[in-house]
Amino acid sequence: MKTKPLTIGSHEIGGKTFTVFAGPCAVESEENFKTIGDFVKKQGAQGLRGGIYKLRTNPESFQGLGEKALPLVKKIKSELGLLFVSEITDPRQRESLEDVVDIFQVGTRNMFNYELLKELGKSTKAVLLKRNFSARIKEWLSAAEYLIKYGNDQVILCERGIRTFETEMRNTLDFNAVVYIKKNTSFPVIVDPSHGSGDRTLISSLAQGAVAVGADGLLLEVHSQPEKALSDGQQSLGLEEFSRFMETLKRILPVFNRELYTSPV
Prior knowledge:
This protein has helices at residues 30-42, 69-80, 94-98, 114-121, 137-149, 175-184, 193-197, 200-212, 239-252, and strands at 6-8, 11-13, 17-23, 47-49, 83-87, 103-106, 126-130, 155-159, 189-191, 217-221, 259-260. The protein has 265 residues and is an alpha/beta fold. β5 (83-87), α3 (94-98) and β6 form a beta-alpha-beta unit.
């Protein structure tokens, strides 16, 4: 089945072009977010990611800046002209985030949060729906149908790894699912090799694999100082690592009849 491209502003996701969203797991400060945003844009990223609200297993872990991050994110996003994707963790956050995000991210823990999906079904903003780490493909697609039923057909699926018997990595990235989605649905699908492995040394190779199996884009965690990141530093690419990866990406995309999206502006 042919993918139905999704248009957000002047940007198309799911067509011939390939989209890269990159940025920190969590927005930590205005200066840090601006530094990372400037860098990923110069390297060719078309979207900026950054957590405002964070769901953390450990209650003592950094939970995100919350509402304090909203004005600084809005300012930097406007200056950079990049699409911004961020996770919504509670239906009550929709109103405040609506004016900031271009794409709502539904994280793995909330894929089964049907009340949240119903709420986002009322939004006019696109939704990046991550696969739950224990979800079957059918369950993942059913979650997408919730969004559509309640009025929002701007859905992007994100494969971010599932739990298996393997313990060497954080998750097991399921390329089978990417191929299945591309062959049997019209949804654009992107891959998150950062969460798919939990190991920055594996990200480049896994991302290249995502291109090979037909993914429409990538969601990458990038930080100016991964060793000091307040969240997921072990799976975040450093700036120079990201630069080298983007050079590789630009070389391999034409092999698969894809090209990196370039803004018409």
